[in-house]
Specification:
The chain has 326 residues and is mostly helical. The chain has a domain of 86 residues. 52% of the residues lie in helices and 6% in strands. The strands form 3 sheets. It has a 3-stranded antiparallel beta sheet. Strands 4-5 form a two-stranded antiparallel sheet. A two-stranded antiparallel sheet has the order 6-7.
């Protein structure tokens, strides 16, 4: 009954989508999505990690791009590849061009939350597709098996029993976006548990993990510095400062480091989308200037491609050569 009520409400949203979709630019995945619906991490790559595909699709959806066609194809590909316990693997393409499981997921909790959230963006199709619905129900059960009552947060997987700050924010985002009383109550409880578990009042920053050894490690851009700004990406409510001040303080400390990440790592296009959402067009334009030369290279992931398309859809151009991007 609960699922049915949600899907009926969602069907109305879907009809609105059908009317408005023509006005929304479509997410283009040429070179990233194959004929079967798999989405690769890199352009023309042989690795398909469902986490990054889901992150890219949801990022596009939440920032005004139409994902309906690629999301359906991806869901049709991924749902049959779910393991009996509800978790997912990462996939490698063989010499015969077939996808085979080759690694376990980095984190089951965040991946399951994003998968559930993606399916909920297509309620009418979910309600009519028994393969999707079975996966949806198994995924919700599998996610709740990762809940740790002693802390009130979610652990990484059935065998990795520590909690990660950013993963729990992904789960919180799933519960918070429905705006229904039961889910909002759960989201509020989880938000408080996340804050109580990960906020370090001495150093005034969020811990990355519940692992004790993490506290003694020197902070790196990822995961430590990224973790501090990640709450803004999901509109997390329990921050030590109001969001605009919190964002500005992070950019003051880490903007220059972020904008050169593409020289040795991925360029973190997610943060350019956040900059745009914070009306910091200068930083987003700097990201375009510094990072677009990497497009479709081995340091340009599907999330960077999605971020690039979002920025262009908002009319943003790369910063001028003489613009201060430090």
């Amino acid at each position: 009954m609960k699922i049915g009520r949600f899907l009926s409400a969602g069907a109305l949203a879907l009809s609105v989508h059908a009317v408005c979709a023509s006005a929304a630019p479509a997410l283009e995945l040429d070179g990233y999505m194959d004929e079967g619906g798999a989405i690769t991490v890199l352009h023309g790559g042989d690795s398909a990690d469902p986490y990054f595909a889901l992150q890219a699709l949801l990022l596009a959806h939440e920032n005004g791009l139409d994902i309906f066609a690629p999301a359906q194809r991806f869901a049709d590909w991924l749902a049959p590849n779910q393991k009996p316990d509800g978790t997912f693997d990462r996939f490698c393409r063989s010499a015969e061009k077939k996808w085979r499981p080759c690694k376990t997921a980095d984190a089951d909790d965040s991946l399951l939350a994003m998968w559930i959230k993606l399916l909920e963006t297509m309620p009418a199709r979910l309600n009519k597709n028994p393969v999707w619905m079975k996966s949806y129900q198994i995924s919700k059960t599998s996610l709740e098996h990762l809940f740790q009552p002693s802390r009130g947060i979610y652990v990484v997987s059935p065998v990795v029993l520590h909690g990660l700050f950013m993963d729990n924010l992904e789960v919180w985002s799933l519960k918070a976006h429905l705006k229904q009383p039961k889910q909002l109550g759960e989201a509020n409880q989880l938000a408080r548990a996340i804050h109580d578990t990960f906020w370090d009042p001495v150093n005034k920053r969020f811990l990355v993990s519940t692992q004790l050894e993490q506290r003694a490690q020197s902070p790196a851009f990822y995961p430590d510095h990224v973790a501090q700004i990640f709450p803004l990406l999901v509109d997390f409510t329990l921050l030590p400062l109001e969001p605009k001040t919190y964002y500005r303080n992070w950019m003051t400390a880490h903007r220059a480091e972020w904008l050169v990440q593409g020289k040795a790592d991925y360029p973190w296009g997610l943060l350019a989308v956040l900059a745009l959402r914070q009306n910091d067009k200068a930083s987003a334009a700097c990201w375009l200037r510094e990072s677009v030369p990497l497009r479709h290279s081995s340091r340009w992931a599907i999330t960077d491609e999605t971020s690039y398309q979002i920025l262009l859809s908002r009319g943003l151009s790369p910063a001028a050569k003489d613009a201060n991007c430090k």
